[in-house]
# Entry
Amino acid sequence: MNNPFKRTTVTSALPYANGPVHIGHLAGVYVPADIYVRYLRLKKEEVVFIGGSDEHGVPITIRAKKEGVTPQDIVDRYHELIKKSFEEFGISFDVYSRTTSKMHHDTASEFFRELYDKGEFIEKTSMQYYDEEAHQFLADRYITGECPHCHAEGAYGDQCEKCGTSLSPTDLINPKSAISGSKPVMRETKHWYLPLDKHEAWLRRWILDDHKEWRPNVYGQCKSWLDMGLQPRAVSRDLDWGIPVPVEGADGKVLYVWFDAPIGYISNTKEMCAARPEKFGAWEKWWKDPETRLVHFIGKDNIVFHCIVFPAMLKAEGSYILPDNVPANEFLNLEGDKISTSRNWAVWLHEYLTDFPGKQDVLRYVLTANAPETKDNDFTWKDFQARNNNELVAVYGNFVNRALQLTKKYFDGVVPVAGALTDYDHNTLQEFADVKAEVEKLLNNFKFRDAQKEAMNLARIGNKYLADTEPWKLAKTDMERVATILNISLQLVANLAIAFEPFLPFSSKRLREMLNMESFDWVNLGRTDLLAAGHQLGTPELLFEKIEDSVIEAQVQKLLDTKKANEEANYRANPVHADIAFDDFLKLDIRVGTVLECSRVPKADKLLQFKIDDGLDTRTIVSGIAQHYQPEELVGKQVCFIANLPPRKLKGIESQGMILSAENADGSLSVVTTLREVKPGSEVK
# Structure
């Protein structure tokens, strides 16, 4: 690829410091980002890799309150755990800092003040619940009460976990503060908003016209938001944990975490450059030089913030570059179910390291092979075992071991002199060179799954070459030919050490040690003279080892135990309701409808608007499941809905029924669908 940029700033989403990181985080963001950065470094390009922990926001304060500690205690604990996990998995950040640092507080405050002084914010006054005992305004999650729809107690101010309906705090019956238990009162409060609608025209041109090369999932989500029309978004909130709003009259107000967190990329870069100016130079060249390329690695839940909101912030400030690409991944599921921290349905990185010591590269390989680059994908322990045993061991490791062991056996571990090459030798080397070009093209286009697959094809070529030439048989009659075959094989092995460096850094390092190979720049990939004749190799060892069934069965059983515990806890938390008369059930008219259209409701993060074919006509239903589904996922699905509820207005839209969903133990919702296609309007009995 012809790169017009002099350097690249790579950022990865800041993990939220209220828990450890799991394989979903690694697959979605950090392994692909690390692959890309290692690749650029191998090419001797100027690049920095920026990371850090996101340490503000309400969830951290809620966790701290539950544990009886301070928010700082929470973020200190998890920042260190997350940082260590990344280090042990070879995620090669140039800096990994945090948003509670003084540098970040100063940078975020200055950024806000710059926009404030330029008049880039609008001020709005609204009424919000206030706890007179705790002397603070209440975030939506700090208000509980009776759900006005299903009448469950303990509904939150933003959503009822029982029926899944999206709520506003004022919707609750008998609201109370989750902090003091007292009844809150309404008080006037002022906040600052970033008017995204003001930026909509240039964002539409910049994304939809200028960045059609972005991944379809990224481009599509941006287009959906832009087509709905952008609205002003609050940049402050009433809270005592965060960065104080740096203007007069803002006591008790902090920067909203969505505004403060992406500025962490900038503050962490400043910190890195201040610590090592001789290596990285001035921080401005990484964020303000138009010859610098900015690339964000994120998960799909952060697409809007990194493609629309953060660029609007940078544009409003006026001196920053905008992202050139945002190769966001979809989600990784675990054994067919969504990864859930609250349900402990995850493979935690720190636990993996205990159960599989020294096997970081195996997990990196499997997560890249199953990377959810354009759609959600699934991690299973059986696939993990199969890829290790059938690919890393049987293909890559087998070729390396055979080449090194044969050289040790016939030439005392010294690279032999190659004689005249046959046509087959030339064809093999040419095939190898062609694959190298393909790996490079795929990496340049952020197609890491396919690039790793092509890298593994290099090992397949080597295996086939040894199998076809059979040097162990020729050793009885033609040692000169054996020398040529093993010389070529060793050159291929040396190339593999380079090709796999971005993907499997630990294994590549061990392989280079076995080869006594010091230089491994990307420019050398494809050369057939990486190891000179007479070069002494090191001691050959197995690069990978088989994983036995018993080890995998233990991991599967651990998940089954977790699922059983979750089901029991869910049943206890949601016991069967009191008996009702059969006639009461008959009053419910539950029908099947086909989803014709589905879209987000403007100014309502949790609502989806459905147009449903109910067999006789079409009807509109509004449902609070936007946090659990993308609209396009539901179009064409057949869903069950209650047809005889009286119409009710939600955000000005008349909803003509209720879509049925099942609630998982973690509060996530799954729409009730049909196993087979039935005629719209069919009754559920």
User: Anything to note?
Assistant: Residues 343 and 565 are 9 Å apart (CA to CA). The chain has a mean pLDDT of 92.
